[in-house]
């Protein structure tokens, strides 16, 4: 039987491409979404109906707010019911971003950022790990950000949350090494997704110019790195932060 992967935040952007590429590579894919149900259902239908062959279990969308422990717990129970098996590979991709001066940030802004971008990772890891530890097998891939490595002006809470994801990745990798579970992190650079839709053309061009490889990244760039980390080719890699940023951060 093929491996089962859970991709959080699969309705849009990077997560949507992760869903497509992992399905294409033969994984059974469960993916979560929160607000964009129509996009999530459309994505699942477009994959499951491919070539006229309907496979209802190729891509399964599940609505769950990752910041809510109970919803995450229910999502894992639903996956067990749908696939008859638990999660072999967990990709913590769901995230929010916000641009604001630090002095304008409210406590609510701070708490929501950490609830989704950090606590969401905590909840999903806690639900995925008992089975992985029991089987002494599993892979966790956390999507952080280059801003978690170097910090971004007007994104202090986002940078702090993404730095926390890097710390969590490294510590968890050490704790889970004896259980043969690899925990790694991808730190994307600027990627063309709805998350960056508020940036105007001038800003995007400036970011492109700052990037040694001279372009904005695509969701596929991230999906290819995730496929590698999920594969047997990465069995001796753990606790690492893989920058997929066109050389912007070296
Ligand atoms: P995006 O286009 O805004 O998509 C975000 C995804 O996360 C959506 O599927 C969204 O679901 C989901 N999500 C948001 N809040 C959620 C919640 N509370 N519970 C469950 N799902 C939730 O963002 P993206 O650019 O693809 O970013 C994906 C990841 O890459 C994020 O962790 C982001 O921080 C990171 N990243 C992105 C960039 C970039 O340049 N784009 C760079 C570095 C890192 P709904 O839309 O259905 O609510």
Q: What's the quick description here?
A:
The protein is 46% helix and 15% strand. By secondary structure, it is α/β, with parallel strands linked by helices. The site of NADP nicotinamide-adenine-dinucleotide phosphate has 31 residues, from helix 1 and strand 2.
Description:
It contains eight helices and seven strands; from the N terminus they run E-H-E-H-E-H-E-H-E-H-H-E-H-H-E. The protein has 250 residues and is α/β, with parallel strands linked by helices. It has a single domain, classed as NAD(P)-binding Rossmann-like Domain (Rossmann fold, 3-Layer(aba) Sandwich). Helix 4 (107-135) links the parallel strand 4 (89-92) and strand 5. Helix 1 packs across helix 8 and helix 3 packs parallel to helix 4. The longest helix has 29 residues, at 107-135. The protein is globular and about 50 Å long. The model has no long low-confidence stretch (mean pLDDT 95). Bound molecules: NADP nicotinamide-adenine-dinucleotide phosphate. NADP nicotinamide-adenine-dinucleotide phosphate binds at residues 8-15, 32-36, 65-67, 93-97, 116, 143, 145, 188, 190-191, 193-196.
């Amino acid at each position: 039987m093929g491996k089962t992967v859970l991709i959080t935040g699969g309705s849009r952007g990077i997560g949507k491409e992760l869903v497509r590429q992992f399905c294409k590579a033969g994984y059974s894919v469960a993916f979560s979404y929160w607000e964009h149900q129509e996009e999530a259902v459309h994505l699942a239908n477009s994959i499951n109906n491919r070539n006229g062959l309907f496979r209802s279990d190729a891509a399964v969308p599940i609505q769950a707010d990752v910041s809510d422990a109970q919803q995450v717990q229910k999502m894992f129970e639903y996956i067990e019911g749908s696939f008859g098996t638990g999660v072999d590979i967990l990709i913590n991709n769901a995230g929010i971003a916000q641009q604001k001066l630090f002095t304008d940030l409210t406590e609510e802004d701070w708490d929501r950022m950490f609830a989704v971008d950090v606590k969401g990772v905590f909840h999903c890891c806690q639900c995925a790990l008992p089975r992985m530890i029991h089987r002494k097998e599993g892979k966790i891939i956390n999507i952080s950000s280059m801003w978690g490595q170097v910090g971004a002006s007007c994104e202090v809470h986002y940078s702090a949350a993404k730095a926390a994801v890097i710390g969590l990745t490294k510590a968890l990798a050490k704790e889970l090494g004896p259980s043969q579970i690899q925990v790694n992190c991808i730190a994307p650079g600027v990627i063309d997704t709805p998350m960056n839709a508020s940036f105007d053309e001038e800003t995007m061009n400036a970011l492109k110019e700052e990037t040694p490889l001279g372009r904005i990244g695509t969701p596929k760039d991230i999906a290819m790195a995730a496929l590698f980390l999920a594969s047997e080719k990465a069995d001796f890699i753990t606790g690492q932060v893989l920058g997929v940023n066109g050389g912007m951060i070296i």
